[in-house]
Amino acid sequence: MRRRAFLLTSAGAAAAPVPLSFAALPNFCAHEHWGSMDSIGPAPGGFRADFEAGALPTVRTRLLDLLLEPYFRGWLNAGGTNVSAMGLKEKAGWDAWTTLRPALEPHRFTGVYQCTRRGIQQLHGIDIHRMDRRDLDKLDASIGHRYTKLFTWYREAMQRAHFSKLIRIVHPEFYSTPSNAAAAAEEKAFTRTIMRIDPFVTLDNSDTPRRRTLAAIAGVDARDATSWRKFLEAHFTRAAEAGALGIKQLQAYRRNLDYAPRSDNEIRWSGTRTPQETLAFQDWVVHECCKLAAARGWVHQIHVGTNNLPHSNPLPLAALAQRYRAMKIVMIHCWPFLREAGWLAKFHPNVYIDTCWQPVLNPNYFREAIATWWNYIPYHKIMCSHDSTTVEMAVGSSLFTREILLETLTERRYGMGAPPQDLRQAAAALLHDNAAGVYAAG
């Protein structure tokens, strides 16, 4: 990677020059999924850490838990490796590692592998691609020891990585009474949340365990327009009382982002819906959630791009931005729709971008995004989270983010009247200050 070191010089001719670096700038992690790993365990519909406040590991955490998290496991399978057929659960230590490593080799240069590798190296001091049996034993011991006190480890890792704040994306069930009140309080002491609205948007009319659970939490069984509004209001109120800062949806995984306003009488409230009736219902729920979010001044994070191409294009979100001006929309990911996302952020005061997940997909996607947006949109519209499933992955993503920002911003300074201190100020905005303002979280 090409880098130029620019010098900051203090006032006075005798001042010693200091290399420009973004390494110690605070980084606001505004969209994370830490805890989505096998050692903490699954829940119906996802991972325990997203459903249960204070969820702790149920078994000792090891290297394979950090590597075979949902992203990398899915991409290994997509690449032709049947991870489940490798028998890794029946193996331990060096035996498990030597079984898995040949499958990792073709993926060693991918973003997800490199982010996790670099984060482990930064936090545990071992390079997984060059380790021997003794190194693996030391690494498994280090990981296992630290994850026994999960939230202490998160705070220590955040401090070492210069992470300032943490927002995790959770399901509505997360705000019900925790099974471990002490652990939930420890997590809440340094974590804020965003509530996923996907469970509401995808809820059909059948009598499922999840429908019953969500109805019991809300104290309302949503069966018509009136009860649905009470149901949603109850969940939003419970989330707000727990300190939630907004909502998030990933409907772009399955449909387009054109949410038409719907009247109550357009919705089929009972029985099996046709595909068009399902689309109308989803539109209705998204608009009702936007109304509740706007009334609270909440942020609405919306998944854009990466999946369901080309239907995850963000341009239809212009209508939501114009209709709910009190609601800040944060488009997350955005690749490959970088120009479209940039246009929305440039011309809509309440629309922002978070580059989270770009380095995990491919660090060059982040480089491409910054190069595309830097001379087009005001930089207060851009934030740099990580969308990582482990703190180790987030640390590795942060290293790539800081390095690429330094490289790109210093290359862009020529002819633009940008002294080094201005570049540092801009980087501080992208890494921390912009998110602190958008989420009003300090």
Describe the structure.
With 442 residues, the protein is an alpha/beta fold. It has two domains: 19-60 and 164-439, Metal-dependent hydrolases (TIM Barrel, Alpha-Beta Barrel); 63-145. It is 46% helix and 11% strand. It has helices spanning 48-51, 63-67, 70-78, 93-104, 111-124, 133-147, 150-161, 181-188, 198-201, 209-218, 225-241, 275-296, 317-323, 338-347, 358-361, 363-373, 391-411, 420-439; strands at residues 7-8, 18-19, 27-32, 42-43, 46-47, 163-170, 192-196, 246-249, 299-304, 328-333, 351-354, 382-383. The strands form three sheets. Strands 3-6-7-8-9-10-11-12 form an eight-stranded parallel sheet, sandwiched between helices. It has a two-stranded antiparallel sheet with strand order 1-2. The longest helix has 22 residues, at 275-296. It starts with 6 loop residues before the first strand and ends with a helix. Residues 1-15 have low confidence and may be disordered.
Q: Per the principal axes of the C-alpha atoms, what is the gross shape?
A: globular
Q: What structural category arises from helix and sheet content?
A: alpha/beta
* Residues in helix, %: 40-55%
Count of separate DSSP helical elements: 18
How many extended strands?
Answer: 12
Short characterization:
With 442 residues, the protein is of the alpha/beta class. The protein contains 18 helices and twelve strands.
